[in-house]
Every structure is written in structure tokens, then in C-alpha cells.
Write a structure and sequence with these properties.
Elements: E1 3-6, H1 7-21, E2 29-33, E3 36-41, H2 43-49, E4 56-59, E5 62-65, H3 72-88, E6 99-102, E7 112-115, H4 119-122, E8 125-135, E9 142-148, E10 159-161, E11 163-166, H5 173-185, H6 189-192, E12 196-207, E13 210-222, E14 236-243, H7 244-251, H8 262-275, E15 276-279
Parallel strand pairs: 1-15, 2-5, 8-13
Antiparallel strand pairs: 2-3, 4-5, 6-7, 8-9, 8-11, 9-10, 9-14, 12-13
Helix pairs in contact: 1-8, 7-8
Length: about 280
């Protein structure tokens, strides 16, 4: 037997997701390397980046990395100086001291690496791994949710998936999941390795700090009934375990203390559609 979620709730969730994805206009100016668009920025960010004439040069679509920056290490070093200056000007989210690989496709050789704090500013394609932490089977399936710390640079205080994090340069999705599972919920590596891959979700939306363009590798992770999450890094400050209809109610919230991040909403919604039936409104 499957838990049943009212169709009107799923409709409300879909409407909330659509509204968040289209709340701001998509940036139209391109950042290019070797003729390939690696980033998207608005006109203000384009003008700001154009100040670094030794790093960027004008292109019809926007800005291109200077032709003299012909190798990944040279591009990485040049952009690092730009990103550090932007940080000092207060233009970026919190510095992570982690780098994302910027490539034409996942696992392709990177054109360069970029500090994670600058990912949205430059509008690069990023990747993440998220897991729905599940307990029980059939009509008794419940999902663990986490609350992000109020000190998080992005989406502070909002509800989140039990496990989720960005895939840094040279890291595989499952390796990211295992690392984040321990840091965010105290899940051991041997248990995290049992997570079942369920697909990918794509997020593209303009946000106050730039443009989020992310592919999320999604997983379902079955957890023992007596499991209790324990954050190891302080990034999660609360956990709760809810039945799927109650999770759906959370996903539909648009304001207040029970709002979930857009990324986590989309990941959890895909899980609801796999594990729960739908009743007519």
C-alpha cells in the first residue's frame, strides 16, 4: 500500500517551484572560453568583470577569456585573482576555499577550476548530490528533513534534504554523498554507500547573487528505524522525520518557518512521486 497525497497539494508544489524558477529574468550576457559559453551574467556583472582587461576581452555575446590564457592552469590562476578581488569588494557569497571544475559536460576535462563562492556570480554549470533519507516501507515510509543553520551563506534557516552538497573538482557524485552524509547527518560511509541513485534534476534560475545553473544527482537512502541524525559540522541545526503527506504539505509552503529550499523541494518531490499515490482533490 502507498501513502496518498492529494492532487491539489502536488499542484501547489508545482506552482511554487515554477514561480521560484521564473521569479527573476534570466541573464543574457555570455562568458566564453574557446568559443564555448561557460557562464551567464547580467549586464552589471559583465561591466564589472570587464575591468580585468588582462583576463577578459570583449565578444559579441559578452566577454571571452583572454586569448593568452590558453591552458586550464593559466585560466584558473587568472580567475582566482579576479574572484579574490570580487570577494574583497563584498560581491560574493561566503568564501568556501573549494573549487568547482568548469567543463563542457560532467567528467569532461575542465577548461579551468573556479572558487565555489563565485559559481553563481559567474553563472557556471555546477553539480551536486542530494539524498532523501527514508525510513520504513509502503504506507509507512517517512522522510528525514534537516534545517539549515542560520549562518549558512545560501538559504539560511530553510528546511533541506537530509543530505546534500556540491560536487567539487575531481570528486564523483557518490563520493560527495558519502562525505556530506557524515558531515551533515552522522551517517557512516558503509551505510551511505547503499544509497540508490534515482536520476538527475536540473535547476536554472536567476538569484540575487547571480545565476544558479545546477544538475543534482539524486538518491534515496534507506535508513534504520532507530537512526537519529547528528550533524558533525554544525550546518544542520534541526532534524525531523515526517510521513510523506506531511512532507508534501511542507513542500507547498511559500512563507514562514516551514519553507524548504528550491533544490531540496525538487529532490523531495521526485521522491514523493515515486513512493506515494495521488488522490483527486
Amino acid at each position: 500500500m502507498r501513502r496518498v497525497i492529494e492532487a491539489r497539494i502536488l499542484t501547489a508544489i508545482d506552482a511554487r517551484v515554477a514561480a521560484l524558477l521564473t521569479a527573476r529574468p534570466r541573464p543574457q550576457r555570455a562568458l566564453l572560453v574557446d568559443g564555448w559559453t561557460f557562464g551567464l551574467v547580467d549586464a552589471d556583472r559583465e561591466a564589472r568583470l570587464a575591468r580585468w582587461t588582462d583576463v577578459f576581452e570583449p565578444a559579441a555575446e559578452g566577454l571571452a577569456l583572454h586569448a593568452t590564457l590558453a591552458t586550464p592552469p593559466a585560466r584558473t590562476d587568472a580567475l582566482e585573482s579576479v574572484v579574490r578581488a570580487l570577494r574583497d569588494e563584498g560581491a560574493l557569497t561566503a568564501w568556501r576555499n573549494e573549487r568547482y571544475a568548469v567543463a563542457r559536460r560532467f567528467e569532461a576535462p575542465p577548461a579551468f577550476d573556479l572558487e565555489r563562492a563565485a559559481a553563481r556570480y559567474f553563472g557556471i554549470q555546477t553539480y551536486a548530490a542530494h539524498a532523501n533519507g527514508l525510513v520504513g516501507t509502503g504506507a509507512d515510509v517517512r522522510m528525514w528533513l534537516a534545517r539549515r543553520s542560520a549562518t549558512k551563506a545560501i538559504d539560511p534557516g530553510l528546511l533541506d534534504n537530509l543530505v546534500g552538497g556540491g560536487i567539487t573538482a575531481g570528486e564523483a557524485p557518490l563520493a560527495t554523498l558519502v562525505r556530506e552524509a557524515w558531515e551533515e547527518a552522522g551517517i557512516t560511509a558503509d551505510l551511505a554507500m547503499q544509497a540508490r541513485a534515482t536520476g538527475t534534476i536540473h535547476v536554472e534560475r536567476a538569484v540575487p547573487d547571480g545565476f544558479q545553473r545546477e544538475t543534482i544527482f539524486t538518491y534515496d537512502l534507506a535508513l534504520p528505524g532507530d537512526f537519529r541524525p547528528a550533524s558533525q559540522d554544525g550546518e544542520a541545526v534541526e532534524h525531523r522525520c515526517l510521513g510523506l503527506p506531511a512532507v508534501a504539505d511542507v513542500l507547498a509552503q511559500t512563507s514562514g518557518a516551514e519553507v524548504m529550499t528550491l533544490d531540496a523541494t525538487m529532490v523531495a518531490l521526485s521522491c514523493l512521486r515515486r513512493h506515494a499515490g495521488t488522490a483527486a482533490a
